[in-house]
Specification:
Length: 275
């Protein structure tokens, strides 16, 4: 308010109002006395009284504007606080919905394999230096996790544990060329080994190479773990065949596979332990 009265234009405006008010008072004092002087004063002050009334109304509106602005600022602050609170609740809702989806898929697998033991874990870090989706989980050896434990999202195979600390572990996904998985195609029973290359990994794909040129595998076929090799149990879903191409290096065929797990959306997974 002090800054308001320091403004030169405001002080001039106030002085004009004071002069007009004085003229109005003088006119009122002389009203009813008919003299040349009174008439002259009335002639001068009548329009001034009208101007004074208009300016007084303007001043009232002007001050009301500042009051309204203050009230509006308070309302805006309250709305912003409420919006921030709503956003926090929505984040909590999204997290809960994600966990619910994880548990729904987990329960389906647990029903089929009641002997399986799992450790639930959340992704705490995605390795920015890895182009193959390597990530860290917030569980480690204290939760029973070991190297070579499969990492799942429901029945979908995500990857495998490659390093374990007390409270964390590192996971390499099936999009890492170092990860190989024994698989079979559910309709034909054809077996193979799924892996990937850097080029395929950049496309979010893996492959089942060295299939016979006469393979009966076609696009849309489902690729699952075969259980061979002792790391991945049978019938975990790796993904769906999207194409079958000839291998230019030999007389075999390659099935290009789209993994079932949505790696970009993963937040919570289950580690298969106690094998």
């Amino acid at each position: 308010m002090k800054r308001f009265w320091k403004n030169a234009a405001v002080r001039v405006f106030a002085a004009v109002l004071a002069m007009l008010a004085a003229g109005s008072l003088l006119s009122l004092a002389l009203r009813g006395k008919s003299s040349p002087f009174t008439s002259a004063v009335g002639l001068v002050t009548s329009p001034l009284q009208g101007l004074c009334a208009s300016l007084a109304g303007y001043a009232k509106d002007f001050l009301s504007y500042f009051e309204s602005s203050a009230v509006l600022q308070e309302k805006n602050a309250a709305l912003e606080a409420e919006l921030a609170s709503t956003r926090e609740r929505l984040v909590g809702y999204d997290d809960a919905k994600q966990k619910l989806a994880t548990y729904e898929k987990f329960l389906e697998l647990k029903t089929e394999h009641p002997d399986f033991q799992f450790a639930e874990a959340s992704i705490t870090l995605i390795d920015p230096a890895s182009q193959f989706g390597t990530f860290t989980l917030g569980r480690g050896s204290l939760s029973g996790i070991k190297v070579n434990d499969p990492v799942l999202y429901g029945k979908y195979l995500v990857g495998v544990v490659v390093k374990v600390e007390l409270t964390t572990c590192t996971v390499e996904t099936v999009l890492n060329p170092r990860v190989s998985v024994a698989v079979y195609e559910t309709a034909t029973g054809e077996i193979g080994t799924a892996n990937t290359t850097a080029a395929l990994s950049r496309q979010g794909m893996c492959a089942v190479p060295q299939l016979p040129r006469t393979t009966a595998i076609i696009p849309g076929a489902l690729i699952c773990t075969s259980g061979r090799g002792g790391i991945y149990p049978k019938d975990l879903i790796l993904g769906t065949v999207i194409d079958v191409v000839d291998d230019d290096q030999n007389v075999s065929a390659i099935a290009i596979v789209q993994p079932a797990a949505d790696f970009a959306a993963l937040r919570d997974v289950f580690v298969l332990i106690g094998q």
